[in-house]
Amino acid sequence: MSGTPDPLWEIVCSLHRLQTTRGRWAYADWYRATREALAGTALGAAVRRLLVPIAPRALYFPDSLTPHESAEGLDKGLAAFVDTPPARISREVGMLARLSGSPSWAPRLVERGTRETLANALRAYYEAVIAPHHDRIHAAVAGERALWARQTLDTGIDGLLTGLSPTMRWRAPVLHVDYVEDRDLYLDGRGLRLVPSYFCWQSPISVADNALPPVLVYPLHDSRQPAAADAADAPLAALLGRTRAAALRSLVLGATTSELARVLGVSPSTATHHTNVLRDAGLITSRRWHNIVLHTLTPLGVALLRRTPAAPSGSSATNAEFQP
After folding, report:
1. I need a labelling partner for 267 at 20 to 30 A (CA). Which of 225, 260, 277, 310 fits?
2. Are 146 and 166 found together in one domain?
3. Strand order in 318-323's β-sheet?
4. 143 and 130: one domain?
């Protein structure tokens, strides 16, 4: 499982968030900031003319936009995209045209210069609307990794795959995934890279080409809350104080002191003060590992936060199967 956000998958998924109102409440502050950052700018025009058309929220977008090398960072991912063989680009642009519709300029992506132009637009978009939220996104993904690391230690791989997401069901040896189309993917011993994504909403995503390294991008596990606290949070804030209540809620997935400080927007020493108070009250437990301290909720802390979950919305997704 990836321990850090994959920048190109986050770019594509965030572009999808701009193209729909579904789940916008979960990204309301990001959406407002992004609209302000792009309004009336050359980058905003590039997003509309280049990025959204080539990465539509549709049945298909080119796999070359999310290369495996992106796991090593934005620079490696964009370099891999620019180096994609023209023959593969031509195939993917043709598939985009057939399945989702492609912009008139897309066939020119076989030219390296056009790919470099698109890569520059992707980088500018990342720096303008994703990098400013770096700490929050990294903390959320790190929390996801901590959650499933503990789950794997407690229950093994079977337990991890069983609880990974409501949209996935593990029936050994097959992982069934609610997906936009019916398909079977045979791993053939290649393994499956699991990529938790901050901007992926509800439905997992994978690459279309079964010959590529298998990857499954999926939404974070119940980790996003509405940007503004609702009325139901008022009693908790009255009891603990607003910042300490936010700290407790941020530890649903577990977090280190530095991660908590980034999420709360406070100094590490202030975050340590809040965790000391929460630990003394029996709401969290802390464990040191090397030079970090990981904080997690106690059963009492979980009970304090527990509320009736919203009913899941209906879905027309079909099924995908990942088979060893």
Report:
1. 225
2. yes
3. 168-171, 174-179, 318-323, 183-186
4. no
